[in-house]
Design a protein that fits this description.
Blueprint lengths: L15 H8 L2 H14 L23 H6 L1 H8 L15 H9 L2 H7 L6
Length: 116
């Protein structure tokens, strides 16, 4: 599986926070902060908080991903790499919420065609 597939199956490679971090793009950080702040009713999301190298990679993480994401915590607590390694994948309501909003996430976790 690609290292830039998050624990939940989202593709960190296409995440605006990661793109802004890699490119050191302050305009994209600002745009992403506004979008995420409105989307999540979270005014504490600012351009300064938009720094992330990916959920499963070394380096900086967006605060939500590193400190608050229940999916990432669960995967780590179970000693798994991603939710795709969990026998409860099909019945898990937590990651199921991700699949409802980002259907490609489940395919990212279950596709054996993806490689590092």
């Amino acid at each position: 599986m690609k290292q830039l597939i998050a624990c939940c199956g989202l593709d960190c490679e296409s995440c605006e926070a990661r793109i802004a971090t890699v490119a050191d793009d302050d305009a994209l950080r600002e745009k992403t902060a506004r979008k995420w702040s409105e989307m999540n009713n979270a005014p504490q999301i600012t351009a300064a908080t938009i720094n992330c190298m990916g959920c499963r990679t070394d380096g900086t993480k967006f605060a939500y991903c590193s400190d608050y994401c229940e999916i990432r915590k669960c995967v780590r607590d179970k000693g798994l790499d991603t939710c795709g390694d969990c026998p409860e994948l099909e019945s898990c309501p937590t990651v199921g919420a991700i699949f409802r909003h980002a259907p490609g996430a489940k395919e990212n976790l279950t596709s054996s065609a993806l490689s590092d």
